[in-house]
Amino acid sequence: MNGNPTTPPPVNEPVLTYAPGTPERAELKKELESQSSTVVDIPLVIGGEEIRTGNTINVVMPHAHSHVLATVHQAGADEVRQAVVAAAAAHREWSTTRWEDRAGIFLRAADLLAGPWRQKMNAATMLGQSKTALQAEIDSACEIIDFFRFAAHFAEQIYAMQPLSERGVWNRAEYRPLEGFIYAVTPFNFTAIGANLSGTPAMMGNTVVWKPGRTSMLSNYYVLKLLEEAGLPAGVINFVAGDARLVTSELLTHTELAGIHFTGSTAVFNSFWETIGGNIGGYRSYPRIVGETGGKNFIVAHPSAELDAVKTAIIRGAFEYQGQKCSAASRAYVPVSLWKDLEGPLVEETESLTMGDPREFTNFLNAVIDQKAFDKITSYIDRARKSDDAEVIAGGAYDDSEGWFIRPTIIQAKRPDYVSMCDEIFGPVISIFVYDDANWSRTLRLVDSTSPYALTGAVFAKDSRAIREALDTLRNSAGNFYINDKPTGAVVGHQPFGGGRASGTNDKAGSVMNLLRWVSARSIKETFVPSLDYRYPFMDSE
Length: 542
Ligand code: NAD
Known about the structure:
By secondary structure, this protein is of the alpha/beta class. It folds into 2 domains: 31-293 and 504-525, Aldehyde Dehydrogenase, Chain A, domain 1 (3-Layer(aba) Sandwich), CATH 3.40.605; 297-483, Aldehyde Dehydrogenase, Chain A, domain 2. 39% of the residues lie in helices and 21% in strands. The chain contains 16 helices and 23 strands. The strands form 7 sheets. It has a 7-stranded mixed β-sheet with strand order 14-17-18-13-12-20-21, sandwiched between helices. Strands 9-8-7-10-11 form a 5-stranded parallel β-sheet, sandwiched between helices. It has a 3-stranded mixed β-sheet with strand order 1-5-4. Strand 7, helix 6 and strand 8 form a beta-alpha-beta unit. Helix 4 (118-129) packs antiparallel against helix 7 (217-230) and helix 5 runs parallel beside helix 6. The termini are far apart. Bound molecules: nicotinamide-adenine-dinucleotide.
């Protein structure tokens, strides 16, 4: 086709409410019932082939951990190597496929997900990752749809970026896919991250080996099936479940590694970078290293802040999805004058939050993801109970007999450097430090220096000078900064997401900045009438 096609203008997918009586609620409930009575057998998918190794692990419901939802076949070293071969084979055609044909596949996937696939994906996310209907809707439906629609639009913008040409010359920019394969390594907490980290490099013409998180396999497998139904050719994204260390050790030092698209904890990302650094002479090209990692996200309230706004931001920001959002608020700084009226209602509201199985829609919270997370989170609660520097003022109860349930917990820290003010806990726990009203500026410096992370943060104030000061002092403390709003809930195309310092490379998921990492530009200069003589005019004799 000759022409410069433009993509449909991207529009964010509306979030459905799931209120009683709505058709989406009825459909979702039906799907939840059906998935709750099925055990899915999840193969590896390499070069379009389903491979069953027989070495399987179970995917369970975190809120009912004896209930198996799926068995997942695990790759050995041979299958991992096979995935690289499949990615290389698919690369030949995919990397030269017209961009609009690639984008069309993802746009089709977005519409399938907005329609017939929506509740399948939401139910898998609710059951496998223990999310409420609303938390699943904003993740596994809306955010994936937005990622795909906006990425197609950003791809179009990238290809349209062309250099100047002077008379007699035609300069062009070609945005080539990277040579080799992309290794996408994704976390459990957002189905959309699995879709974005594997899908975005593929949209730009790359081929991918995708290792999903161990506890999000069901929804992640459906992402792959959705893309297959939308027409993604075999081998473009290869789905390789398996022991994280084994899969990674095969791939990270491979000559053809063209890039890493990672989201997860800082320690794992650091280990990837070290391995790549140690092997730097062993690659065909310098691998692109893109990683979004941990956080210790803050809320800082000024004495002029509105009490109810701070209370709501703490509850929603810290406890939605059990505090397992990378952006979740996990430390707050409140002035004494506000705290005396905030403490009572905050504790009372926290104690009233409903927790349980996501199939019961009245619950606000569900279970944390697995035993390892449960043990880690509860160890911080136990420690606070025993410490003279902290007090558990709300929640603190936990029970893993049926599901990994932890009550939303507030720790009041008596020192700003108490351990739970500094470490990423990744659970329904927020630590609060109460400061003297006179220490506003000093508190801002404390917020900046307490943690190595810089992902999200929020300031609450009515005083505009205070907001300005917070923006300045906390300039590098958060990649996503909120004024009078909770620090979670970034929307694709509105608040491109990512942080600096130990929170990642800040390549902003859901923006043109991320897509640019997956292309390597070639500058082409064509001269219409070439020079025939090497001599320049200045060389002529006078
Ligand atoms: P994780 O680091 O345990 O796992 C992430 C991925 O790395 C998974 O696929 C896992 O299997 C793999 N992995 C784990 N250990 C590995 C190892 N030793 N070698 C190779 N691969 C390994 O993270 P998680 O528990 O799935 O997710 C939670 C973490 O992710 C938190 O730290 C959170 O802040 C972070 N996160 C960050 C963002 C962001 O945008 N900054 C978004 C979501 C999650």
